[in-house]
Amino acid sequence: MNDKVFHKVGRRPWEWRGKPDGDTERRRRRVPGTKRHWLKWRDVHNDKSLTRERVLADKMPLWWTLGLGAVVLVTPFLSNTMIGVVTIFCIYAAINVLWTLIVGTAGIFSLATLAVVGAAGYVAAACNVYLGVPWPLMFLIGPLTGLVFGAILAAPSTRLDGLYYALLTMGVAEICRVFILQLRALTASGGAITNVDGFIPEDWFLQRPGLLLGFAGAFVLLLGALLVWRLVNSERLGMLLRVARASREDEAFAEAVGIDFRRARLMVFLISSAALGAVGAFYAMYFGSISPQIFSLDTMLLLFAMMVIGGLGRAEGAVLGAAIVTFIDKGLIELGPPRIILVALCMIGVTIFAREGLTGARAQFRDFRNRKSGEARARRTEKGGEAMPEEATEVHDKQELYYRRFNKRLRDRLKQLITPDLIAEHKKDPLGHHSDGLARVLNYFRRGEMADKYVIHRMKPAEERFRIMAISGERGRPPRVVDDREYTDIKEAYHAVFLLRVNDLMES
Amino acid sequence: MDLGLVVYAMNLAAIYALMAVGISILWSSVGVINMAHGATFAVSGYAAWIFTGAMKPVIAGAFGTSAMATLALAGALVASALIAGALCGLVIYLLAFLPIHDKPNFQVRALIITLGLNIATVQTLLWYFGPRNQGLPKIFGFGRWEVLGTRIRYDQAGTIIGATLIMALTLAWLRYSRKGLEVRAMMQNAEGAAYSGISRQATALPVLMLTGALAGMAAALLSQTIFVSPTSGTIPLVKGLTIALLGGLGSVSGALIAALLVGFLEAIIGAVPFLGQRYVLFGTFIFIIAVLVIRPRGIGGLLDDTRE
């Protein structure tokens, strides 16, 4: 028996667990002005050590802090070109986060995101250059234009769905591009508006302090986009839409329980559009110009590739994808045209292998590993009353598992003891002194559970007629008759019960 | 209306219909929005260019400059474009269908993979051949016919006739062959088709190769009018996609009607003096948006509704 290998059941991933002091009261800081906590600490009970432990249930805030902190710390030491690349990454990431809000949270497959950015950028830049509006006001004009443009775009989204709406928005972007190119006033510069004022002073433009200032602005922009994401996706609007999404089969259900998901969707779309307008104004300011390139299909596809590589519908995916694609596209510029091929190949590879982009890879790998190890365990285990390893992880009381395992081995041992001789011995003398083997078997039978335990029923008082019944095991429910045989001798009945139990034992 | 305009419109409609019907059949039977259709188009054009370039001396040696030589060259061009298109379909099958067709989010992922394939292929062509336009041999010659007082160029007539022929063959294949029956069953109800023993994998391959060949044919025909370049597939892709959507994705007849409508619309917008060619795309999109807002599921959408 000793050479049998026992495999570990279940898995406990390593993570840091706090050991809170049991006496003091629990204190958690809240975000000022709200009821939210900063981090999602949860107290759990450790079954083994019987102590209270504290775990961080949601570790994403830590990853965000680490990632964004690294960007802030590293960027000032980079070369001028790379600072520009990081700034563009921040702008693209901000656009992508807001786009994710539209595609993921609202579930509207809009491809006009860059069109909103471009339109707001153009209007803000035109106000600045032709009307002499000072640059801080551009941050007001941008979102307003975005809001109006978003409202126009959102109007048909209630009627059209999926691909039809995607096509429509693609058409809108194309119309914007052609419209800008047709404008008489801009033909001289190829449709671009140049010399836009901005928060970067003139003489700092393309100098190191200017680049750093631009980076700081873009980083704040990204933080703002993430804040919008958090406020929309994780608060009421996002929750409503998630409920409606869970019952996509019958959106009527969502409506019946009082969720106006169409309105929620529109709200998300409008909020994101306004935020995209702010990004557009920033874009025009940072580059000091804006060109019809922003409406082109290629730029849109580049941003779409970012979202796809990172994982469609997740903020972290949008940012990670933006980092990867911007690095390939702008950082490896000496590679020439093949870098777009590289982006496309990344896109294909990620999509073939990953269900939900790179950020979903971890969960996918866990699912895969669980499935494989489950299959392997199922292959090497025979059941025999013992808990299967899969169900073993579900059984809370681990004592139960070991009891079942012990029971199985005991039964295996007893099965070997049962021989025709043993049965003959019992038939001869059901009560009284028995051999060691028979005593062991009978002891096991006596210890059996109450449910389905066999009993002998005397059919009439003072009459030697017996039959065998089985106890139901439930209070109030009478025993059931096992078969219709009657015994006139109590010893015969004893032996019949014995035979039934032996039969059950051999079959288990 | 001027008859020349009608011919021009029919010419456009023929090319668009080849693209749109391919996209539409593929979507309704396999469930893939093929964004790599434009890449297929460009690759077929280049394959035809390389192959006819290689075959020209051979054909000239064999037939001289007789009518047979033109015929042989035409055969080589069309065959090479068709085969290249079908091979592209095979690649799409291997990359965008086979690995993921039974995985979650299949439709979105197939769209993304074909989009990636499109970008990668176009950029590779651009990198390898450069952005220069390449002219293919004119298989229909340069002459023109006088019909009812208007002149019809040979290439226009050839395109209209060739496209109609190919389209008729495709529809006949769908209608009368065993495989066509299976494809139609998948178009009607993919699940039901699977229950009656129609293999999705075995049906998707011919459909993808067929739609690829249709794109190849479109490339061969369009190359008679314009040049072949790496990005030459983008406009037919966008047009084909929009027309397929306008016709109602999955409806072949809707796609044909939509192709005719858009062909005429473009010819008319191009001919109106104060609009001109620059507003063609603009006008088409506005028209399509208007139609979609009024009829959210396109022209063939009525069929869709009754099916559900």
From TrEMBL, chain A:
Keywords: Cell membrane, Hydrolase, Membrane, Transmembrane, Transmembrane helix
Transmembrane domains' residue ranges: 62-79, 137-155, 162-180, 211-232, 266-288, 300-328, 340-358
InterPro entries (UniProt xref): ABC_transp_permease, DMF_alpha_dom, LivM-like
The keyword Cell division belongs to this UniProt entry's keyword annotation: no
EC number: 3.5.1.56
Membrane topology summary: Multi-pass membrane protein
GO molecular function, one term: N,N-dimethylformamidase activity
Cellular compartments annotated: Cell membrane
CDD domains: TM_PBP1_LivM_like (cd06581)
Record-annotated N,N-dimethylformamidase alpha subunit domain positions: 402-506
UniProt biased composition (Basic and acidic residues): 372-385
Protein name: N,N-dimethylformamidase alpha subunit
Gene field: dmfA1
Automatic annotation (TrEMBL), chain B:
One Gene Ontology CC term in the entry: plasma membrane
Protein name: High-affinity branched-chain amino acid transport system permease protein LivH
Gene that this polypeptide is encoded by: livH_6
Membrane topology reported for the UniProt record: Multi-pass membrane protein
Keywords, sorted A to Z: Amino-acid transport, Cell membrane, Membrane, Transmembrane, Transmembrane helix, Transport
Keyword Lyase: no
Species of provenance: Falsiruegeria mediterranea M17
Residue ranges crossing the lipid bilayer per the database entry: 6-27, 39-59, 71-98, 110-130, 157-176, 207-229, 241-267, 279-298
UniProt subcellular location: Cell membrane
GO terms of biological process kind: amino acid transport
